[in-house]
Amino acid sequence: MYITEDVIKRLAEQYGQPQSWYASMFCYPDEFEMIRASQKDGRNHDVTVYIMKADKIVVNAKHFYPPGLFRAPSGGVNKDENFHEGVRREMSEETGCEMKLKRFLLHTEATFYRREPDGKVITDETVQWRSLVFSADYTSGDFNFSDHHEIREVSLADWEDFERFSHTMRKTAIGGFHYRAALHDRVRQILFPR
């Protein structure tokens, strides 16, 4: 699990108490197995960071994303790695930027259910996942990211672009996209309450 409740408590003391969100998502078998495979050594988390560069947000796209689709970068802290060092490493690898965490926005607890091609949901096969979501300030970097295996492109986006990103994600059958779209929406509600 790596990210213990004690770590989350210390992060909340340092960056503010996050909102909590519980989600259930459905994934077809290939995606479900991919998420499960990412849980090596018991990992069950990602750290998602909305990096602000002036009035823009640093976003990236993975190789399989359709053109024009981006999201806030995320990554996992390695086992026995300091949380802050792990986040800095992941953001540098995925965006080519240095950043400073600013606010702990959201702590999610998600359950991914396996959905068969015929639509049947296998309720006794689940993957538990959590996302720790932060805002951050861009401090330096030229967007020359190093993780070319996972990341195709880095760009800057406006908050309004996230509506389009979420819409595109929801038109797919990819459970992880539906999760990210909902996460984008929650972050916007936190930052821009109506």
What does this structure look like?
This protein is an alpha/beta fold and 194 residues long. It has five helices and seven strands. The chain has helices spanning 5-15, 29-37, 83-95, 161-170, 175-191, and strands at residues 19-27, 45-53, 56-62, 74-75, 97-115, 121-141, 151-157. Strands 1, 2, 3, 4, 5, 6 and 7 form a seven-stranded mixed sheet that branches. The protein has a single domain, classed as Nucleoside Triphosphate Pyrophosphohydrolase (Alpha-Beta Complex), CATH 3.90.79. The radius of gyration is 16 Å and the shape is globular.
What can be said about this structure in brief?
The chain is an alpha/beta fold and 194 residues long. Helices cover 31% and strands 38% of the residues. The chain has one domain: Nucleoside Triphosphate Pyrophosphohydrolase.
Helical content (DSSP H or I, runs of 4+): 25-40%
Q: Could you give the distance between the termini? A: 35 Å
Which CATH class applies here? Alpha Beta
Strand content: 35-45%
Mean pLDDT: 94
N-to-C order of helices and strands: HEHEEEHEEEHH
* Main structural class: alpha/beta
CATH topology category name: Nucleoside Triphosphate Pyrophosphohydrolase
Domains counted in the coordinates: how many? 1
Please provide the count of β strands.
7
Number of helices, where a helix is a run of at least 4 consecutive DSSP H or I residues? 5
Using only CA atoms, what is the Rg? 16 Å
Describe the sheet with the most strands: 7 strands, mixed
By CATH, the superfamily comes out as Nucleoside Triphosphate Pyrophosphohydrolase
* CATH architecture title: Alpha-Beta Complex
